[in-house]
Design goal:
Blueprint: H1 3-7, E1 10-15, H2 18-34, E2 40-45, H3 48-51, H4 68-75, E3 81-85, E4 97-101, E5 110-113, E6 132-134, H5 138-147, E7 152-154, H6 160-168, E8 174-178, H7 179-184, E9 193-196, E10 210-215, H8 219-227, H9 231-247, E11 255-262, E12 265-273, E13 280-288, H10 292-305
Parallel strand pairs: 1-2, 1-3, 6-7, 6-8
Antiparallel strand pairs: 3-10, 4-10, 5-8, 5-9, 11-12, 12-13
Helix pairs in contact: 9-10
Length: about 325
């Protein structure tokens, strides 16, 4: 490493929510093990999705609502790298950037979170009639409605803490959130919850994983990010993201995936649902980790052959 880079801090761009900051500091700690003589700074960015807390996410007009402005900070030189929840990152690479780091994946599934001091339930079937479920995700909405058509799926926005306050104020009977966020914020053990797993509820593409971008001409930072990457996580998320890209579906579409790795084999299963959850198509494929991209494309082709194209809510981006 040259003298200039040793002296100049490595700057990480991130949204300023508590969860986003946890992710940025987690990456900073990984990088410190590789660059012990270099300072690391966190650059706070406010995204469009953070400023507008009332509009449904599906109405924001395309992908990247939580990532565009963090990416811009890297492109214009305010930061050297950007940390994202990989599930929020569009599959089409932003011009001038590269996805150079994918650390080990965190918890994978979704959870139903119940109000403070409530007992919760043991299954979706045990929820009360017409239960009000807070979620901004079409994928979660469709999969829950596939199990229970009476559920009242209601929009919820804001960071995790804001959503929990709304839950405790009686606006919802349960919230559907990512298990990873609740675990990372150390909030899951404080409440009654129900883990949602396949085949009933498949996670989002890239869920539980972090994606780290740097400029495509910054080979030094890219090398650092490759050193903190986790090859099995990279293979799994590569398969999931190639599936999503081939479907040209976008990260707000009702599509779920599950990647499982055993020895050197990757098994990918995916589900596509109609918005109301009443139609559901699945497909799967298995192959070597080295063929992760092709596995994703194979599953996408099977889904399309089974008629999934008419179910996908295409938001105009890939």
């Amino acid at each position: 490493m040259n003298q200039t880079s040793q002296q100049r801090p490595l700057r990480i761009a991130t949204r300023a929510s508590r969860l986003a900051l946890w992710q940025a500091h987690y990456v900073a700690d990984l990088l410190k093990k590789q660059t012990q003589d270099r300072a690391i700074e966190i650059v706070h960015i406010t995204s469009e999705g953070d400023r507008d807390l009332t509009s449904p996410l599906s109405e924001f007009g395309g992908l990247g609502v939580f990532t565009r402005e963090v990416q811009k900070a890297v492109l214009d030189g305010r930061a050297d790298l950007a940390v994202h929840s990989l599930k929020d990152l569009p599959t089409e690479q932003a011009t001038g950037l590269q996805l150079a780091g994918i650390p080990v994946r965190g918890p994978l599934y979704d959870v139903l979170i119940f109000p403070q001091n409530s007992e919760g339930v043991g299954s979706v079937a045990d929820l009360p009639p017409d239960a009000r479920i807070g979620t901004g995700s079409l994928r979660r909405r469709a999969q829950l409605l596939h199990q229970r058509t009476d559920l009242q799926m209601q929009e919820v926005r804001g960071n995790v803490e804001t959503r929990l306050k709304k839950l405790d104020a009686g606006e919802y009977d349960a919230l559907c959130l990512a298990e990873a966020g609740m675990v990372r914020l150390e909030l899951l053990e404080q409440r009654s919850s129900l883990l949602l797993t396949p085949p009933e509820v498949f996670p989002a593409v890239g869920q539980g994983a972090l994606g780290i971008e740097c400029r495509d001409d910054d080979s030094e930072t890219a090398t650092l990010l490759s050193e903190i990457s986790h090859l099995p996580t990279k293979a799994a998320t590569t398969a999931e993201r190639s599936l999503l890209a081939f479907l040209r579906a976008g990260c707000h579409a009702p599509i779920g995936t599950l990647s499982q790795i055993e020895e050197n084999e990757l098994h990918l299963e995916a589900v596509v649902l109609s918005g109301d959850g009443q139609e559901r198509i699945t497909a799967a494929a298995t192959g070597s980790l080295a063929d992760a991209f092709e596995i994703g494309v194979s599953v996408a082709k099977k889904l399309l052959e089974a008629g999934a194209g008419r179910l996908i809510l295409n938001d105009g981006d890939s």
